[in-house]
């Protein structure tokens, strides 16, 4: 069930460190369901307010990336509950995400997987709303997000934690997606685990000396139990209004993650475009 199954050294990417750093190997198979069903809701639910998934590509050696962190904080303050943020550190693609010697490594290789869906940006910081509106200019991010907020919700997304067993660090969770307008396309879903309040050194143009030694990082992507899993292969069953997809899973949190700071994100999407997202605290 646990997908961070092994570690390997990425010496060629860590140009600034004198010792090897490690990233989790990505498994090809998504987390298998404990329960999987689909049915038609005879009284379809009303569409939810559009929640925007905002993916932020960032790095600890990027001196302007804290401007992106501030932009997201302001966006979430201005539009409470309407923006789900994911901070993606990926040194395999951006050297500015390379961790400092002796500091925790926030990198995963999921950024590389996401680049199979969206076009890789020229550099960081980079933010993209619903995988449609992206920019390296942090002052543009809120406008991109609000544009997506104005879209009609074609699907609802819900998630819940069914149980958390601290003894074995297992969470059992449920994701539920309901189609609110006929969509004649195959659909996909993904799930993400993020963690807040991670402390580490951060390069920052505006800081004295150009660094913050105890910088606090939020919404850091830790793992993706599911990446672009097909809900209805070959459009079967058809994604018509009222169709519900419900699945339950179990996942083991690694020992070094603080459950009280972790969140589960789930989103339903087309091949590229995010239709709806949901975010809940794990504990």
Order of helices and strands: EEEEHEHEEHEEEEEEEEE
**Shape designation:** globular
Structural class: mainly beta
Main β sheet profile? 4 strands, antiparallel
Task: Return the CATH architecture.
Answer: Sandwich
Strand order of the largest sheet: 3-14-9-8
Share of helix among residues? under 10%
Continuous helix count: 3
Please write the CATH class name. Answer: Mainly Beta
Quick one: CATH superfamily? Answer: Immunoglobulins
Tally of discrete structural domains: 1
Distance between the termini: 19 Å
Mean pLDDT across the residues is: 91
Could you walk me through the main structural features you see in this protein, from its secondary elements to its overall organization?
With 283 residues, the chain is mainly beta. The chain has a single domain, classed as Immunoglobulins (Immunoglobulin-like, Sandwich). 10% of the residues lie in helices and 40% in strands. It has three helices and 16 strands. The strands form five sheets. Strands 3-14-9-8 form a four-stranded antiparallel sheet, with no helix packed on it. A hairpin with a 3-residue loop joins strand 6 and strand 7 (133-135). The two termini are 19 Å apart. 39% of the residues are buried. Mean pLDDT is 91; it is low at 1-28.
């Amino acid at each position: 069930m646990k997908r961070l199954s092994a570690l390997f050294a990425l010496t060629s990417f860590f140009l600034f460190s004198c010792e090897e750093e490690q990233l989790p190997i990505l498994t090809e198979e998504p987390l298998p369901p404990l329960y999987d069903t689909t049915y038609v809701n005879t009284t379809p639910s009303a569409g939810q307010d559009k929640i925007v998934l905002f993916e932020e590509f960032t790095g600890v050696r990027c001196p302007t990336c804290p401007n992106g962190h501030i932009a997201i904080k302001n966006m979430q303050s201005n539009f409470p509950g309407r923006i789900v943020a994911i901070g993606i550190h990926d040194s395999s693609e951006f050297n500015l995400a390379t961790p400092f010697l002796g500091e925790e490594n926030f990198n995963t290789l999921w950024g590389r997987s996401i680049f199979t869906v969206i076009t890789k940006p020229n550099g960081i910081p980079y933010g993209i709303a619903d995988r449609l509106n992206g920019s390296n200019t942090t002052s543009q991010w809120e406008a991109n997000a609000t544009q997506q907020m104005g879209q009609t919700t074609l699907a609802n997304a819900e998630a819940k934690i069914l149980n958390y067993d601290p003894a074995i660090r297992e969470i059992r969770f449920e994701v539920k997606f309901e189609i609110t307008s006929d969509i004649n396309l195959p659909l996909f879903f993904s799930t993400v685990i993020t963690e807040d309040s991670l402390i580490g050194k951060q390069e920052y143009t505006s800081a004295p000396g150009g660094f913050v030694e105890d910088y606090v990082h939020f919404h850091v992507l830790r793992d993706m139990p599911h990446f672009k899993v097909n809900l209805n292969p070959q459009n079967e069953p058809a994604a018509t209004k009222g169709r519900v997809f419900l699945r339950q899973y179990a996942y083991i949190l690694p020992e070094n993650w603080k459950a009280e700071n972790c969140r589960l994100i789930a989103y339903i999407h087309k091949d590229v475009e995010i239709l709806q997202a949901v975010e809940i605290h794990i504990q």
